[in-house]
Specification:
The structure is a homopentamer of 340-residue chains. Chain A is of the alpha+beta class. The first copy, chain A, has 2 domains: 253 residues, Beta Polymerase, domain 2, CATH 3.30.460; 61 residues, Up-down Bundle (Methane Monooxygenase Hydroxylase, Chain G, domain 1). Chain A is 55% helix and 16% strand. Chain A contains 8 helices and 7 strands. A 7-stranded mixed β-sheet of chain A has the order 2-1-3-7-6-5-4. In chain A, α4 runs parallel beside α6. Chain A is rod-shaped and about 120 Å long. The interface between A and B is large, with 48 and 59 residues.
């Protein structure tokens, strides 16, 4: 994972996938078109028009789109540059919102992100996915099936729905990371290897990257929640307030996970020094037992002429017994000290 | 304890326990009903109506409740989702407040929480407990017995009373955690085991979770204290200001306990390295005493033909004496260095 | 010291000590009464009335006091609950201020606090001490002796005087703690024992408790300093501004002492690992000197038949000389490495 | 690198390089002059006048410049003092902006900076480079080639372009530092030498210096973005908002790199203590294997007369076999403990 | 250095040194008087009157001064109490500013401070130095010599000049500290002694004390810079803005130095544990070489009757050769592991 953000990377070739969805309380139409020129919609307040672009590969399309809906060139740049932070920008005739969708890859332990661009106008929502996304599919199904109150609400409620599924996705990602942490935690006390330390730091960085996106997201949702926002009806405001609550909870979960990882570093270093302690204890025990014994053996290995013990018949077995006694005493001593 | 917050978990089956309490200065009535349909109350300013729902298990009940009292669907969602942070939300015809009640389990050393939902309207308070709670029982007794000024006050004072008992409960939880910390502290210097480190981190996380709920609580109480709040009479404001003070003191206690746990980590690592020091000292003493002695024994174990000492009658006892002298000197040296 | 704050502890039995002081530029009267019923004062702007209650033991007295001066029941609760943080609360007819007076016990190294309650009305100051306090005595003497400008000022200046002596007392407490720190610092490098670590943490906690009271105090003084405060005349404002300065200096001193204690932890751990280093050096020196020597002795302890050195007359003394040489060389080597 | 900022260092001698560029939608003129006296331009709103001074060596020139364009003496001081933080200052007839351009020297691992001063007036931009800079050349080319919309915009857009290329340069610098960090990271686990620690600290300091410039830069761009800024047209505002976004991303990248370096310190200390662990294991293994063996040898080196084993024919080979057995057992034991 | 700030210390005896300077564009007069009674000046807007008091030893003088210029008693207290933080206080007829001048003593490595009090009135500046200061002398010379624009500006510009030289002095102090740090840094890797740690902590504390004065100074300058300040003319505002910039740079330099000292602590602990590593390596090498050798010697020191090797003529030299081989192999092994 590279951390320095890269400049605009324009994707060429290929083609966008454009779906136009129009709906009101009793009306639903979904049309897929391949070229932006064929797009022919009338925007009015009596229905919601949702233009979904799900696979952005073509710069030209956006040029035409920009012309049709009077979108500022900078917004087009931001859409094509998939390296944005979540943000909200108000323009004269629309509000532009950038969201990030995250995925946690369990094998490489890395977070990847996809950008979701949302343009909210009067009775109009344009959504541009970096890659076709399942969560947007789900919302489309939801609208098609006329579930909840979506069909009787305005385009701002559709925006709410899309943001809601994106933020719900964060909880799933965080749970996957939490599972990963649980696995590490088990290994931590049993085998505190340097590679484990590496894994802890890696997860810490993923969470850091993740949390870097959450703070601006909070601002985005906070802006939408505040009343007086253009294109957002007062009766939708409580929903954004609810979303704001979710965002706060995501942030708190991230902070808790970060605190756990921090604690794990503590435990790691503690486990390492415990191991050292074990090694040192072993060395000390060995030395404490055998040094006195070797010393006794050394004494009776001296070549003095007048060493009466050497002549005794019981000298040797007695010495061996004393050595045994010393050894056993030492072992009992270490047992009582709970070294063994 | 899982730290990533989970999405709405709707409890099905079972039945709610509904109690309707109506009171004014000279009047008190308490009726228990089993079905919301049988609820038949007239809300007016001449008395306080308290609807207590104490065991939420039934989704439908809330649907009917919402209809009767014009409660926003999002509030119903929040009530059923027992994973809320403390918060206050103003709606057109009521103010919705979420509180958490905590319990510290001494055997598992874990905090658990129960949600208390409060809906304050004009002359009306609806309280919804996740589980029937003793502290709410106490408040009911208090009202029944007409203690203090509660019977001559409005519904906002009842809200104050409920919040007061909940916040007083926090002090009890914190004292239990403090007792736990005291136990750990005693063990810390005597036996700094890795499991102790684990316990310290566990308590740290419980406190972190706890404190995560205190900051939004402060905001909730702060909002109620500020004048200009609907449904809160000016003469009740000083009581909420008092509550605010209590909240601040809870937060300060949490911070102090967190600081103590942090210090305990310091002490833990210090105790571990002290133990290492002890081990090393022992090794060094053993080596320092026996290495020179073994060396002397080694000298007189050499097989040179011309070693006059070996022929002396006093050679052996003299050597032993010298060894004894060296040993004793060493021990005295270590005594003076306070190693023993 | 328990850190979780306890709930109201009502002291029963006993009796309050009430002194009524009335003064203006040319007038001074001091009357001690035993029962609040006998209190008979007329409050007017032509003189200052100071009611000093210096030993609160009686709940009833306050009930009567509250009635006489229309004091809110919550204020009475706060006075009786001696576990308040410094705070200022404005009521319709008076401003209520809580201060803490600290004492540092040199033998137990613990801070204890006493509460001082001040009620400022129009031409009236009621002071309630938890325990009779010398600093309040001093202010009384000051007024009696008509020192400074106090007799020509209003009740707000008397409030200033009382606050000033209390805050001056903080500097004395901090100096005592600083002396304690100096003592610890001397011991730190000479004898870094675990009990020293314990003492550092203890002082850290005392300072933490202390500083927890300073931040709200700053707010209290800041509120009084701001113009537009009821019962505070514009010409007294500069005095409160001066007090605010003192408070800031107290806070800075606390922070500096905390930083010093933090540094001392560094030094402690450094001193511990230095000691370990010393131990390791000793072990290494002993092993490095005696292992080669013992090896040489071992060689000539071998029983090979054809070892010509053993037959030489000079074999033994030469070997001893070589051993001596090796030993001395080693010692010189360690001297040059500055291990000895 | 010295970190205390130095006072004004006035460069004497030499000569400034002055280029005057005038352009509008259909018009472009570029004139190089050597002396400020020869400068003869008419500033009006129908075209943009860009005075580029690209090598400031002459104090006098600025005196004359100041006179011509009514520039405040303090601005002149700031231009000559190349030790400024990024800042924006509004004067009556112009806005003065200081930017820093950074270069990372891969061999010395040091950041150096060059100052770019920009004076924005009505239809006028004066740019003063500390040293002739390529990025400014590029902007000049861009204007000459009439790329993008620059020729149809006002002087504020030219300011935007210059700031944009400067900020884009930051990403390049950060990538170079990131490459450096990657190199260090590889070395970290293989060879944790003190010189590596030194390198980590060095990079940390470079990033600190860098980030110290980013926060005021954010303020500068934020000021320009806010509407109501003189000399900045409303249609240019979105471009500055875009620039603000870039600045935030630079800051986030810096913070991420700083977090990585912090983690590396962790890893470094972990690697050092791992090495120590390895050393200790080796010592313990050697001692554990050879101490018992030497002890056995010591036993049969004793000179007791009655040691029956010594007389056995199989005594010696059996003893050797037992020793071998012990040695092999120990080695297997350490293998199982994964020490080898 | 004592860190708890002390209360007012009134210096008695001695005499103040008073100089009265009056100047306008074409007029300059300097008079030294010994007693405040002899002071006889007329303050008007046509000229600047600077009263310089440079050695405050006499309490009475200030009483008279206060009377003459209507200075508030609290200001007099602040002047006599040389333990102030930098601050600005507005009174009805003047603005009172406290600055600190620092000196770094290279031998004791301690910062000391002197207080400079400034009272700015309408056409009047009173400066009171704790001790006669060279930097104030320099400003006087500057005015006398009519350098720069000082003679054509008002008293606020004189204030600016005095503050400018004081703040410039901070850079010099910081450079001296930086030199000190450089010296420590060199010693750090070569000889990480506990006394070095002590020095690092000492410098850290000096910087802490220093920085504690910089934050309020920033406020002081920030207040002066803001327009709408009495006694400060709009055309002087840019000069105070420039001063504000300098203050920010001082603060940043302090922070950088603090970061460097923090890093040095890292390096210190790393160097200590590196030393330990060295010691351990030495011990391990010695043990690893001599333990196997001694074991071999031990084997051939055994007294078995049937040890054929002992009878061989080549037994002894072969054993010695094997020992040599083992020793050399070990040394080569450690060389390859880069321990030697």
């Amino acid at each position: 994972m590279r951390f320095v953000l890269h400049l605009i990377e324009i994707k060429k070739g290929g083609r966008c996938l454009i779906t136009v969805i129009e709906y009101s309380r009793d009306f639903f139409r979904e049309v897929s078109i391949e070229e932006i020129d064929k797009l022919d919609v009338v925007i009015n307040k009596s229905k919601v028009t949702w233009i979904r672009i799900s696979d952005l590969k073509d710069r030209e399309t956006f040029g035409k789109l920009a012309e049709k809906f009077k979108i500022h060139p900078l917004t087009i740049e931001d859409i094509l540059n998939v390296d944005q932070r979540p943000k909200i920008e108000e323009f004269q005739n629309y509000t532009y919102i950038v969201l990030k969708m995250f995925k946690f890859d369990k094998s490489s332990k890395e977070l990847s992100s996809r950008q979701l661009n949302l343009i909210l106008g009067d009775g109009l929502l344009i959504s541009i996915e970096e890659e076709k996304s399942k969560v947007v599919d789900n919302v489309l199904e939801w609208v098609k099936a006329s579930r909840g109150i979506v069909r009787s609400m305005d385009a701002d409620y559709l925006l709410y729905l899309l943001m809601d599924v994106v933020i719900d996705g964060y909880f799933i990602v965080l749970e996957e990371i939490e599972d990963e942490i649980d696995v590490l935690e088990d290994e931590l006390t049993s085998n505190p290897s340097p590679s484990l330390l590496h894994m802890i730091h890696k997860l810490k960085r993923q969470l850091l990257q993740f949390s870097k996106n959450m703070w601006p997201l909070r601002e985005v949702v906070g802006t939408l929640e505040r009343s007086g926002q253009r294109f957002v009806n007062p009766q939708t405001t409580p929903y954004f307030r609810d979303l704001y609550d979710h965002t706060i909870r995501v942030i708190e979960s991230v902070e808790t996970l970060q605190a756990i990882l921090s604690d794990m570093l503590d435990v790691y270093f503690s486990a390492v020094s415990n191991k050292m302690n074990e090694v040192m204890k072993m060395l000390t025990m060995i030395a404490t037992i055998f040094m006195p014994l070797s010393f006794i053996a050394g004494i009776y290995g001296m070549n003095f002429e007048y060493m009466p013990e050497l002549k005794w018949v019981w000298g040797y077995p007695l010495t061996l017994s004393i050595m045994l006694l010393i050894g056993v005493t030492m072992i009992l001593y270490f047992k009582r000290k709970k070294w063994i």
